[in-house]
Write a structure and sequence with these properties.
single chain, 268 residues, 8-stranded parallel β-sheet, 40% helix, 13% strand, globular
Length: 268
């Protein structure tokens, strides 16, 4: 029977993230929310200090670290598994030094030329996402001949560069980058063909949670959690290794139903 994906709980310690900006800016509130997500079924807490929504205002490394490092220090001190959501090598290095297990880089190493080298010289797992540009330009770059073939090809190029830098293959994960330089139909097409990414031979993470392409199922981002949970299960069926979600409880319960359906509620 297929195993269940890991659940990455999203912890945005930002003032301007698209669905929950400002809620968890205070470190104490952020840590409490992380604990609640773990209790609800999160395997990993993904801590991000910079919004990557279209049109978001960039921040510098010092501000990013001011936001994320106290939270990561506290969570790792409690034995919670942490992922750092960053495009910057310096922030990744600092987070891993505090105990972060994963480096989740939405740019796949294209934003900061030092990122792949930094991760290679660390013990962290590197999650490389498909990316064509930052928040200011990504929507203008959503043009493909065949979105699945093009994204697979571009990710394969990134894998080659990452492997050339010396990262062990068992420390690389991939993410097709839903919502990043993709329009709604591109996102659905990538989800329909998720097996194409799984077949590349690396664990695949799916990050659909509350994104704009789910607007037909909920006008407000928070109303898209049911659709997100359904996508979590469908991604599991397609072989995804992890899902990244805001509402951990819904996806965790959906996976529990899937396990019961499969006849093994202790499959994870």
């Amino acid at each position: 029977m297929a195993s269940q994906p890991l659940v990455f709980g999203i912890l945005n310690v930002t003032p301007d993230s698209f669905s929950d900006g400002g809620l968890w800016e205070n470190p104490d509130n952020a840590v409490a929310h992380a604990r609640a997500m773990v209790a609800a079924g999160a395997d990993v807490i993904d801590v991000g200090g910079e919004s990557t929504r279209p049109g978001a205002t960039p921040i510098d490394t010092d501000e990013e670290q001011r936001r994320v490092l106290p939270v990561i220090r506290a969570l790792c001190g409690e034995g919670i598994v942490v992922s750092i959501d960053t495009m910057r090598a310096a922030t990744a290095t600092a987070a891993v030094s505090l105990g972060a297990t994963y480096v989740n880089d939405v740019s796949g190493g294209l934003f900061d030329a030092g990122m792949v080298t930094a991760v290679t010289h660390s013990p962290a797992v590197y999650i490389a996402m498909h990316w064509r540009g930052d928040s200011a330009v990504m929507d203008d770059r959503a043009a493909y001949d065949d979105v699945t073939k093009d994204v697979v090809s571009e990710l394969e190029e990134r894998v080659e560069r990452i492997m050339d830098a010396g990262l062990e293959p068992n420390r690389l994960w991939l993410d097709p980058g839903l919502g990043f330089a993709k329009n709604p139909e591109h996102n659905w097409e990538l989800l329909r063909n998720l097996e194409s990414f799984v077949e590349l031979g690396y664990p695949v993470m799916v990050g659909a949670s509350r994104k704009r392409f789910l607007a037909p199922f909920g006008e407000n981002p928070i109303d898209r959690d049911e659709a997100t949970a359904v996508i979590s299960v469908l991604a599991a069926e397609a072989g995804a290794a992890a899902v990244r979600v805001h509402d951990v409880g819904r996806s965790a319960r959906a996976f529990a139903v899937r396990s019961t359906w499969q006849g093994d509620s202790d499959d994870r």
